[in-house]
Amino acid sequence: xxxxxxxxxxxxxxxxxxxxxxxxxxxxxxxxxxxxxxxxxxxxxxxxxxxxxxxxxxxxxxxxxxxxxxxxxxxxxxxxxxxxxxxxxxxxx
Length: 93
Description:
The protein is of the alpha+beta class. It contains two helices and five strands, in the order βαββαββ.
């Protein structure tokens, strides 16, 4: 995942993060559990980082109910204005 665009999922709770990790694994999307970056405000201390090539699969695999999950894409660590919430993805924003 080094020089490619990456996406980051942040959550309101650890339970949401772990549930989402299982959903992504079942969809075949490799992701990494990382501490939520300090430059992002979230109630949960962990986030999921994934390669940007999986963006479409990620948005298709996750339920669209409003559950406090946010998808930031593209995400670069320690950059001002880190990514943006994907418009029209109500289940993520």
